[in-house]
Specification:
Length: about 60
């Protein structure tokens, strides 16, 4: 499976539009991804999705 890495401008636009994105770090670092969504758009469904598929800490600021 081939994953597409989007340009930062597209990611910022998606976050501003209320979309959830996955931010990934370098494959030579931790090689992990984090779900990110702007706090003003978060719903219970988003939190449940993160808890089910992210399996880590959920932080809101």
């Amino acid at each position: 499976m081939s994953a597409q890495i989007s340009p930062i401008e597209a990611i910022v636009a998606d976050i501003r539009a209320g979309k959830m994105v996955i931010l990934v770090d370098d494959e030579h670092r931790e090689n992990e991804g984090d779900f990110v969504i702007a706090a003003e758009f978060v719903t219970a469904e988003h939190i449940n999705f993160m808890a089910k598929y992210g399996r880590g800490l959920i932080c809101l600021t």
